[in-house]
Amino acid sequence: MNEHGTGRLLRPVVLVIALVHLVLGVLGFFFLPEANQTGENTVWIFSATGMLNVIRTLIGVLGVVAVLKPAAIYGYCWMVFVAFAGLTAFGVLSAATSSAGDAVNFNWADNVLHALTSLSALIAGIVLVRRPSRERTGRRADV
Fold it and tell me: According to its UniProt record, what is one Pfam family this protein matches (predicted)?
């Protein structure tokens, strides 16, 4: 895999994904007062629950590590795609039913963020797979 060309192009995408989730995750820990009722813990328009903050912080830290080590970007993109596709599916069901016992407490802003994150990670992962294969086929034709 051509880490210099493709990795350099995808670093900003991965860094944006990582920093958005890292900031939301870390800030979310400050918006968890015990006095608030479920559903009132938010960072801007996004839910801030303990489990969701841990997930976002972990995704952010792993993304920063992937940016520092370009060989890890491929695995990070696919991991984020799978994880956030699942979170989106669960979040849509959770927000649509609005059950009171939901520990994660997704709202529609979270669902949109998770869907966009999943989609951008999927596109980045596909670009990583497709670009080197095009470069290899081009080199074979020249030989």
Answer: DUF4383
